[in-house]
Amino acid sequence: MKKKLISIVIPVCNEEQNIPLIYRALKDVWAKLPKYDYEFIFVNDGSKDGSGRAVEALAVVDKNIKYMELSRNFGQDIANSAGIDAAKGDAVVMMDADLQHPPEIVPKMVEKWEQGGEVVTGIRTYNHGVGFVRKIGSWFFYKIMQVISDKNLIPGQTDFCLIDRTVADAFTNFSEHRRLTRSLINWLGFRRAFVEFEAPARLHGESNYSHLKLVRQAINSFVSNSLVPLRLAGRLGFIITLFSGLLGLVVFFERYIFGDELGWHVSGSAQLAIINVFLIGIVLMALGIIALYIANIHIEVSGRPLYVVRKQMNIE
Ligand code: UDP
Ligand code: MG
Fold first, then answer.
1. CATH class of the structural domain 4-211
2. Residue with CA nearest ligand 1 atom 16
3. How far is the CA of 182 from the centre of ligand 1 (A)?
4. pTM for the full model?
């Protein structure tokens, strides 16, 4: 009987020193997975160091090493997607090149997959070698994402995951350019399973993500996964209009209908201020209405598939 094939997709950006190490580590892991064939797909995402040469050197001796080089740096998520497009496996695993996603976890993922999990996600319980600022930032990021985007991300969820062939095929239908692999995979659905792991510190080199890049990515994720920020202006406008309108009415009646019976002495400038705030509220509401139209455009332009099929029979 033919062995099942497992593809490992590894995005690579300046990981020259890590490549031989992750290759060794994966080969060691495969000693525990004799029932499966492997292909390791390294996607070179515009590395400026010798990462490409390092992979090619391995690919010469091991035919199961696939190498794909992107024309420039597209970002980790696009690199992952390119790897998934190329993968032929019955299951596809995505993992980082810097050994922060421990290869020893792969057999556990395969086990959960064999038990019926179609998406086996790595949940990071602890991230060694990451500073306080990043930990706090990451905590806030997941909290905000959970609030604004229908629980789209699971806290601690990483890109380290195994997906079944059906899921990989569905994933290739996504067309959006700004993508967060994790949240797209969550959007797809399918039967989920989880494996916990602790991330060790990066082995060689430095993280590709500066604080600024992370903040930018977080804002992108909010915007591309949630319409809450877009609706904010309208809601704010509604609240402001409501309160300043009520306040204006109360002041109007007190002053001009009942002749300042309560002795508030509301000054002319205060009345002007109320009118001003009222108008600002109306402007914000108008923006909010425009935002609703933009939201529709946003949904259509992101071109997500309308639905995703798990299985087909006798249909061409
Ligand atoms: N990576 C990539 N393109 C990029 C940034 C990162 O292919 O533009 C790869 C990188 O080589 C690594 C993985 O994505 O395999 C995770 O990157 P990194 O370790 O720098 O991120 P961190 O672990 O610090 O979040
Ligand atoms: Mg890393």
1. alpha beta
2. 96
3. 14
4. 0.83
Q: Identify the nearest ligand to the CA of 97 by its number.
A: 1
The two three-digit tokens of residue 31, written as one number: 């000693």
Ligand 2 centroid from CA 226, angstroms: 26
Q: How far is CA 63 from the centre of its chain?
A: 32
Q: In what order do the strands lie in the sheet with 91-94?
A: 65-69, 36-44, 4-12, 91-94, 157-164, 119-127, 192-199
- What is the DSSP code string of 120-165? EEEEEEEETT--HHHHHHHHHHHHHHHHHTTT-S-TTEEEEEEEEH
Q: Specify the DSSP class assigned to residue 2.
A: P
Tens digits of residue pLDDT in 252-309: 999 899 988 888 888 989 999 999 999 999 999 999 899 888 888 887 887 877 666 7
DSSP for 181-249, please give it. Answer: HHHHHHHH---EEEEEEEEPPPSSS--S--HHHHHHHHHHHHHHH-SHHHHHHHHHHHHHHHHHHHHHH
